Amino acid sequence: MTTIPLLQSLPPPRLHLHGGGGDLPLRSRRGGCIVMNATSETNNPAILNAVFEPFEEVKKELLLVPTVPHDSLARHVYSDRSEAAINDQINVEYNVSYVYHAMYAYFDRDNVALKGLAKFFKEACIEEREHAEKFMEYQNKRGGKVKLQWMMMPISDYDHLEKGDALHAMELALSLEKLTNEKLLNLHKVADENNDAQLADFIESEFLAEQVESIKKISEYVAQLRRVGKGHGVWNFDQMLLAA
Ligand SMILES: [Fe+2]
Ligand SMILES: [Fe+2]
């Protein structure tokens, strides 16, 4: 007796898309509906050129689907360098957020009491934290692993003999925003070098424009604070921020 194996090595089935009135093999006759039929014709060169062979083409992808539970299933065309650079950017955003939080605490002191600046830096702190979280979500979306790193301890006092505290803190904020912009551009470069169009698009659409806006806004605040000096003008500037 001849045994027929359950799985034979047959040529891979091919999908054909049929309209209701066509005359291709194994055509469905269910009214005018489009149906998909699998056939095992592989020798017709005309069809070979015209038809997408999903079962053939997916073979190499199937080999890449990880079987180890701690490996991401979603990861696709995502380089280790991109993964590491995203983790670095998460750290940059968190560090900037931490400094802004320290500035908030300074301006909220009872003997400083610049409530507008306190509000401004608190909002900035939250915004940078949200940036960090956006990168964390993205890391997971691409199948990378979020690795949080150490943060620097920010200074607690922002007074400055010549500049005063408001201008000194705002100049620091400006340099932090420029540094962040530089880091974002480096990240974009890593995406380019690894042909990761999706990562490049994410950075462009979610971060680059906003970063340039932040730099412009804080530059204007620095310019205004340089005009008003350290005294009463700072109070007016602070009231303006409070009302914003
Ligand atoms: Fe940011
Ligand atoms: Fe920012």
TrEMBL record:
GO CC, alphabetical: chloroplast
Documented EC number(s): 1.16.3.1
Catalytic activity: 4 Fe(2+) + O2 + 4 H(+) = 4 Fe(3+) + 2 H2O
Domain of life: Eukaryota
Signal peptide positions on this chain: none
Biological process per Gene Ontology, one example term: response to oxidative stress
Subunit and partners: Oligomer of 24 subunits. There are two types of subunits: L (light) chain and H (heavy) chain. The major chain can be light or heavy, depending on the species and tissue type. The functional molecule forms a roughly spherical shell with a diameter of 12 nm and contains a central cavity into which the insoluble mineral iron core is deposited.
Coiled-coil regions listed: none
Top EC class of this enzyme: oxidoreductase
Domain (Ferritin-like diiron): residue spans on this chain: 76-229
Primary location class: plastid
Protein's name in the database: Ferritin
Molecular function terms, GO-annotated: ferric iron binding; ferrous iron binding; ferroxidase activity
Entry's localization field: Plastid, Chloroplast
CDD domains given in the database record: Euk_Ferritin
UniProt keyword Hydrolase present: no
Record bears the keyword Iron: yes
